[in-house]
Amino acid sequence: MMIVPSFWAEARAQYRRKGRQITVRRFGWSDASQEDAQQNAQLRVGEALARAVSGEPLPRRERKVPYNGGDGLPIREEVVDRIGETVITRNGYGARCMNTPNVLFVDIDFNDGPGKRMIWGTALFLLAAGAVMLVLMAAAGKGIGRLLAVAAVGVLLTLVLSAPIAQLVHRMVVRAQGGPEAIARKNILRFMATRPDWLVHLYRTPAGFRLLATHRLFDPLDAEVAECFDALATDPVYAAMCLNQHCFRARVSAKPWRIGIEDHIRPRPGTWPVLPERLPARRAWLERYDRAAAGFAACRFVESIGKGASNPAAQAVKQLHDELSRAHSTLPIA
What is the pTM of this model? Predict the structure, then answer.
Protein backbone atom coordinates (compact mmCIF):
# COMPACT_ATOMS: atom_id res chain seq x y z
CA MET A 1 0.00 0.00 0.00
CA MET A 2 1.37 3.42 -0.99
CA ILE A 3 1.80 5.72 1.99
CA VAL A 4 2.84 9.37 1.64
CA PRO A 5 2.38 10.89 5.11
CA SER A 6 1.92 14.58 5.84
CA PHE A 7 3.27 14.36 9.42
CA TRP A 8 6.52 12.90 10.73
CA ALA A 9 8.02 12.37 14.19
CA GLU A 10 10.89 10.48 15.84
CA ALA A 11 11.02 8.59 19.14
CA ARG A 12 13.90 7.25 21.23
CA ALA A 13 13.90 4.32 23.64
CA GLN A 14 16.69 2.98 25.84
CA TYR A 15 17.37 -0.25 27.71
CA ARG A 16 19.89 -0.53 30.55
CA ARG A 17 20.70 -3.59 32.60
CA LYS A 18 23.88 -4.88 34.25
CA GLY A 19 26.14 -2.57 32.30
CA ARG A 20 24.39 -3.30 29.02
CA GLN A 21 22.83 -0.35 27.16
CA ILE A 22 20.76 -0.36 23.99
CA THR A 23 19.40 2.83 22.42
CA VAL A 24 16.96 2.66 19.52
CA ARG A 25 15.39 5.44 17.47
CA ARG A 26 12.48 5.09 15.09
CA PHE A 27 10.39 7.39 12.90
CA GLY A 28 6.61 7.61 12.98
CA TRP A 29 4.17 9.07 10.49
CA SER A 30 0.52 10.00 10.03
CA ASP A 31 -1.89 11.69 7.67
CA ALA A 32 -4.03 12.86 10.59
CA SER A 33 -1.84 14.91 12.95
CA GLN A 34 1.57 15.42 14.48
CA GLU A 35 0.33 13.74 17.65
CA ASP A 36 -0.63 10.61 15.72
CA ALA A 37 2.79 10.60 14.08
CA GLN A 38 4.44 10.75 17.51
CA GLN A 39 2.29 7.89 18.78
CA ASN A 40 3.26 5.84 15.74
CA ALA A 41 6.93 6.59 16.42
CA GLN A 42 6.55 5.51 20.07
CA LEU A 43 4.86 2.28 19.02
CA ARG A 44 7.54 1.48 16.44
CA VAL A 45 10.45 2.30 18.74
CA GLY A 46 8.95 0.13 21.50
CA GLU A 47 8.66 -2.82 19.14
CA ALA A 48 12.20 -2.28 17.82
CA LEU A 49 13.68 -2.05 21.32
CA ALA A 50 11.98 -5.30 22.37
CA ARG A 51 13.45 -7.06 19.35
CA ALA A 52 16.91 -5.60 20.01
CA VAL A 53 16.82 -6.66 23.66
CA SER A 54 15.90 -10.20 22.61
CA GLY A 55 19.12 -10.31 20.61
CA GLU A 56 17.77 -9.73 17.12
CA PRO A 57 20.31 -7.81 15.01
CA LEU A 58 18.67 -4.70 13.58
CA PRO A 59 19.63 -1.09 12.85
CA ARG A 60 19.54 1.04 15.98
CA ARG A 61 18.59 4.13 13.99
CA GLU A 62 16.72 4.68 10.73
CA ARG A 63 18.24 6.87 8.07
CA LYS A 64 16.37 10.05 7.19
CA VAL A 65 15.94 9.52 3.46
CA PRO A 66 13.31 11.09 1.18
CA TYR A 67 12.59 8.18 -1.15
CA ASN A 68 13.50 4.62 -2.00
CA GLY A 69 13.49 3.66 1.65
CA GLY A 70 15.11 0.26 1.49
CA ASP A 71 14.16 -0.19 5.12
CA GLY A 72 10.49 -0.01 4.22
CA LEU A 73 9.74 3.54 5.29
CA PRO A 74 7.06 5.48 3.40
CA ILE A 75 7.91 8.30 1.01
CA ARG A 76 9.33 11.15 3.07
CA GLU A 77 8.66 14.23 0.96
CA GLU A 78 6.64 17.40 1.33
CA VAL A 79 3.06 16.79 0.18
CA VAL A 80 2.13 19.51 -2.31
CA ASP A 81 -1.32 18.21 -3.26
CA ARG A 82 -3.59 15.17 -3.08
CA ILE A 83 -5.85 14.48 -6.06
CA GLY A 84 -7.83 11.31 -5.53
CA GLU A 85 -5.29 8.54 -4.90
CA THR A 86 -2.53 10.52 -6.60
CA VAL A 87 -0.15 12.45 -4.36
CA ILE A 88 2.05 15.29 -5.63
CA THR A 89 5.24 15.64 -3.61
CA ARG A 90 8.36 17.79 -3.63
CA ASN A 91 11.41 15.56 -3.91
CA GLY A 92 14.80 15.94 -2.26
CA TYR A 93 16.19 18.29 -4.91
CA GLY A 94 13.04 20.42 -5.27
CA ALA A 95 11.20 18.98 -8.28
CA ARG A 96 7.52 17.98 -8.10
CA CYS A 97 6.66 14.30 -8.53
CA MET A 98 3.47 12.31 -9.06
CA ASN A 99 3.01 9.24 -6.88
CA THR A 100 0.27 6.80 -7.80
CA PRO A 101 -0.52 3.40 -6.26
CA ASN A 102 -1.85 1.71 -9.40
CA VAL A 103 -1.09 3.55 -12.68
CA LEU A 104 1.96 2.06 -14.36
CA PHE A 105 4.81 4.43 -15.22
CA VAL A 106 7.96 2.97 -16.79
CA ASP A 107 11.22 4.94 -16.72
CA ILE A 108 13.63 3.97 -19.52
CA ASP A 109 17.07 5.59 -19.67
CA PHE A 110 18.96 5.32 -22.94
CA ASN A 111 21.93 2.97 -22.79
CA ASP A 112 24.95 5.28 -23.02
CA GLY A 113 27.71 2.83 -22.25
CA PRO A 114 28.80 -0.82 -22.45
CA GLY A 115 27.58 -3.25 -19.84
CA LYS A 116 29.80 -5.22 -17.51
CA ARG A 117 29.37 -8.29 -19.72
CA MET A 118 30.82 -6.47 -22.74
CA ILE A 119 33.74 -5.09 -20.71
CA TRP A 120 34.55 -8.53 -19.28
CA GLY A 121 34.18 -10.08 -22.73
CA THR A 122 36.65 -7.56 -24.14
CA ALA A 123 39.08 -8.32 -21.32
CA LEU A 124 38.84 -12.05 -21.94
CA PHE A 125 39.39 -11.52 -25.66
CA LEU A 126 42.52 -9.45 -25.00
CA LEU A 127 43.84 -12.05 -22.54
CA ALA A 128 43.17 -14.85 -25.05
CA ALA A 129 45.00 -12.90 -27.75
CA GLY A 130 47.90 -12.42 -25.36
CA ALA A 131 47.95 -16.12 -24.52
CA VAL A 132 48.14 -17.02 -28.22
CA MET A 133 51.04 -14.60 -28.63
CA LEU A 134 52.88 -16.21 -25.70
CA VAL A 135 52.38 -19.68 -27.17
CA LEU A 136 53.83 -18.51 -30.50
CA MET A 137 56.78 -16.86 -28.78
CA ALA A 138 57.45 -19.98 -26.73
CA ALA A 139 57.35 -22.07 -29.91
CA ALA A 140 59.88 -19.68 -31.43
CA GLY A 141 62.26 -20.39 -28.54
CA LYS A 142 61.98 -17.13 -26.64
CA GLY A 143 63.39 -17.18 -23.10
CA ILE A 144 61.27 -17.43 -19.95
CA GLY A 145 62.28 -13.96 -18.85
CA ARG A 146 61.02 -12.40 -22.04
CA LEU A 147 57.81 -14.42 -21.90
CA LEU A 148 57.12 -13.23 -18.34
CA ALA A 149 57.76 -9.62 -19.33
CA VAL A 150 55.38 -9.87 -22.29
CA ALA A 151 52.75 -11.54 -20.08
CA ALA A 152 53.00 -8.75 -17.50
CA VAL A 153 52.65 -6.08 -20.18
CA GLY A 154 49.68 -7.94 -21.67
CA VAL A 155 47.85 -8.08 -18.34
CA LEU A 156 48.51 -4.37 -17.74
CA LEU A 157 47.26 -3.44 -21.21
CA THR A 158 44.14 -5.57 -20.65
CA LEU A 159 43.35 -3.69 -17.45
CA VAL A 160 43.90 -0.32 -19.11
CA LEU A 161 42.29 -0.94 -22.51
CA SER A 162 39.30 -3.21 -21.80
CA ALA A 163 36.85 -0.42 -20.90
CA PRO A 164 37.88 2.03 -23.70
CA ILE A 165 37.73 -0.71 -26.34
CA ALA A 166 34.36 -1.92 -25.06
CA GLN A 167 33.10 1.69 -25.16
CA LEU A 168 34.27 2.06 -28.76
CA VAL A 169 32.63 -1.22 -29.82
CA HIS A 170 29.41 -0.25 -27.99
CA ARG A 171 29.25 3.10 -29.79
CA MET A 172 29.76 1.43 -33.15
CA VAL A 173 27.00 -1.11 -32.48
CA VAL A 174 24.58 1.58 -31.24
CA ARG A 175 25.31 3.80 -34.25
CA ALA A 176 24.76 0.89 -36.63
CA GLN A 177 21.32 0.29 -35.08
CA GLY A 178 20.22 3.91 -35.47
CA GLY A 179 21.19 5.34 -32.09
CA PRO A 180 20.01 4.79 -28.51
CA GLU A 181 16.57 6.33 -29.05
CA ALA A 182 15.84 4.06 -32.02
CA ILE A 183 17.02 1.01 -30.10
CA ALA A 184 14.81 1.82 -27.11
CA ARG A 185 11.79 2.45 -29.32
CA LYS A 186 12.29 -0.84 -31.21
CA ASN A 187 12.43 -2.63 -27.86
CA ILE A 188 9.15 -0.99 -26.80
CA LEU A 189 7.43 -1.93 -30.07
CA ARG A 190 8.73 -5.50 -29.73
CA PHE A 191 7.29 -5.70 -26.21
CA MET A 192 3.94 -4.23 -27.27
CA ALA A 193 3.64 -6.66 -30.20
CA THR A 194 3.21 -9.46 -27.66
CA ARG A 195 0.51 -7.57 -25.72
CA PRO A 196 -2.26 -6.56 -28.12
CA ASP A 197 -4.62 -5.58 -25.29
CA TRP A 198 -2.22 -2.99 -23.84
CA LEU A 199 -2.36 0.77 -24.39
CA VAL A 200 0.70 2.83 -23.47
CA HIS A 201 1.65 6.45 -24.04
CA LEU A 202 5.23 7.29 -24.92
CA TYR A 203 7.00 10.43 -23.68
CA ARG A 204 10.50 11.73 -24.36
CA THR A 205 12.48 12.74 -21.29
CA PRO A 206 15.90 14.41 -21.20
CA ALA A 207 17.58 11.04 -20.55
CA GLY A 208 15.27 8.59 -22.31
CA PHE A 209 11.62 7.55 -22.52
CA ARG A 210 8.70 7.37 -20.12
CA LEU A 211 5.79 5.00 -20.65
CA LEU A 212 2.37 5.44 -19.07
CA ALA A 213 -0.10 2.54 -19.33
CA THR A 214 -3.83 3.28 -19.28
CA HIS A 215 -5.49 0.03 -20.37
CA ARG A 216 -5.79 -1.17 -16.76
CA LEU A 217 -4.60 -0.54 -13.21
CA PHE A 218 -1.55 -2.36 -11.82
CA ASP A 219 -0.26 -3.43 -8.44
CA PRO A 220 3.48 -2.59 -8.24
CA LEU A 221 4.05 -6.13 -6.93
CA ASP A 222 2.34 -7.77 -9.94
CA ALA A 223 4.51 -10.28 -11.78
CA GLU A 224 3.50 -8.56 -15.03
CA VAL A 225 5.06 -5.32 -13.77
CA ALA A 226 8.38 -7.08 -13.12
CA GLU A 227 8.22 -8.65 -16.58
CA CYS A 228 7.55 -5.25 -18.14
CA PHE A 229 10.43 -3.61 -16.27
CA ASP A 230 12.80 -6.40 -17.29
CA ALA A 231 11.74 -6.48 -20.95
CA LEU A 232 12.01 -2.70 -21.35
CA ALA A 233 15.34 -2.38 -19.49
CA THR A 234 13.77 -0.07 -16.94
CA ASP A 235 16.09 2.03 -14.80
CA PRO A 236 16.93 -0.42 -11.96
CA VAL A 237 16.83 2.30 -9.31
CA TYR A 238 13.30 3.23 -10.37
CA ALA A 239 12.22 -0.43 -10.40
CA ALA A 240 13.54 -0.86 -6.83
CA MET A 241 11.71 2.28 -5.72
CA CYS A 242 8.41 0.96 -7.05
CA LEU A 243 8.82 -2.27 -5.09
CA ASN A 244 9.99 -0.61 -1.88
CA GLN A 245 7.30 2.06 -1.82
CA HIS A 246 4.45 0.10 -3.46
CA CYS A 247 3.78 2.85 -5.98
CA PHE A 248 4.67 4.22 -9.38
CA ARG A 249 6.18 7.64 -9.83
CA ALA A 250 6.93 10.33 -12.40
CA ARG A 251 8.77 13.61 -12.11
CA VAL A 252 6.54 16.42 -13.45
CA SER A 253 8.80 19.47 -13.15
CA ALA A 254 12.35 20.21 -14.25
CA LYS A 255 15.56 19.18 -12.53
CA PRO A 256 17.12 22.36 -11.07
CA TRP A 257 20.58 21.91 -12.60
CA ARG A 258 19.04 21.64 -16.06
CA ILE A 259 17.39 25.07 -15.81
CA GLY A 260 20.29 27.15 -14.57
CA ILE A 261 19.94 26.64 -10.81
CA GLU A 262 23.31 25.37 -9.65
CA ASP A 263 22.87 25.62 -5.87
CA HIS A 264 21.06 22.91 -3.95
CA ILE A 265 17.68 23.26 -2.28
CA ARG A 266 17.87 25.03 1.06
CA PRO A 267 18.40 23.91 3.72
CA ARG A 268 20.62 20.94 2.95
CA PRO A 269 19.68 18.14 2.75
CA GLY A 270 16.20 18.64 1.34
CA THR A 271 14.63 15.75 3.27
CA TRP A 272 11.22 16.60 4.70
CA PRO A 273 10.30 17.91 7.21
CA VAL A 274 12.72 20.74 7.99
CA LEU A 275 12.95 22.75 11.19
CA PRO A 276 10.47 25.68 11.34
CA GLU A 277 13.27 28.24 11.59
CA ARG A 278 14.72 26.95 8.32
CA LEU A 279 11.47 27.07 6.33
CA PRO A 280 12.02 30.66 5.05
CA ALA A 281 15.27 29.62 3.35
CA ARG A 282 13.47 26.67 1.76
CA ARG A 283 10.57 28.81 0.54
CA ALA A 284 12.94 31.40 -0.97
CA TRP A 285 14.79 28.69 -2.90
CA LEU A 286 11.55 27.06 -4.09
CA GLU A 287 10.15 30.39 -5.30
CA ARG A 288 13.28 30.88 -7.39
CA TYR A 289 13.08 27.32 -8.67
CA ASP A 290 9.37 27.53 -9.57
CA ARG A 291 9.92 30.75 -11.53
CA ALA A 292 12.68 29.13 -13.57
CA ALA A 293 10.82 25.82 -13.99
CA ALA A 294 7.81 27.62 -15.49
CA GLY A 295 9.74 27.86 -18.76
CA PHE A 296 10.34 24.12 -19.10
CA ALA A 297 8.48 20.83 -19.48
CA ALA A 298 9.41 17.63 -17.68
CA CYS A 299 8.74 15.46 -20.75
CA ARG A 300 7.19 15.61 -24.22
CA PHE A 301 4.40 13.40 -25.53
CA VAL A 302 5.50 11.33 -28.55
CA GLU A 303 2.73 8.85 -29.39
CA SER A 304 0.24 6.32 -28.09
CA ILE A 305 0.96 2.64 -28.81
CA GLY A 306 -1.48 -0.26 -28.63
CA LYS A 307 -5.13 -1.03 -29.29
CA GLY A 308 -6.41 -1.43 -25.74
CA ALA A 309 -9.17 0.73 -24.27
CA SER A 310 -8.29 3.23 -21.54
CA ASN A 311 -9.34 2.58 -17.97
CA PRO A 312 -11.12 5.77 -16.74
CA ALA A 313 -9.06 6.02 -13.53
CA ALA A 314 -5.79 5.53 -15.38
CA GLN A 315 -6.86 8.03 -18.06
CA ALA A 316 -7.56 10.63 -15.36
CA VAL A 317 -4.02 10.18 -14.01
CA LYS A 318 -2.66 10.56 -17.54
CA GLN A 319 -4.52 13.83 -18.02
CA LEU A 320 -3.17 15.13 -14.72
CA HIS A 321 0.35 14.00 -15.62
CA ASP A 322 0.20 15.69 -19.02
CA GLU A 323 -1.03 18.92 -17.48
CA LEU A 324 1.54 19.07 -14.69
CA SER A 325 4.48 17.98 -16.85
CA ARG A 326 3.39 20.21 -19.80
CA ALA A 327 3.89 17.21 -22.03
CA HIS A 328 1.95 18.70 -24.96
CA SER A 329 3.71 22.08 -24.90
CA THR A 330 6.61 23.19 -27.09
CA LEU A 331 8.73 24.11 -24.06
CA PRO A 332 12.22 22.59 -23.81
CA ILE A 333 12.37 19.50 -21.60
CA ALA A 334 14.58 19.51 -18.54
Answer: 0.79
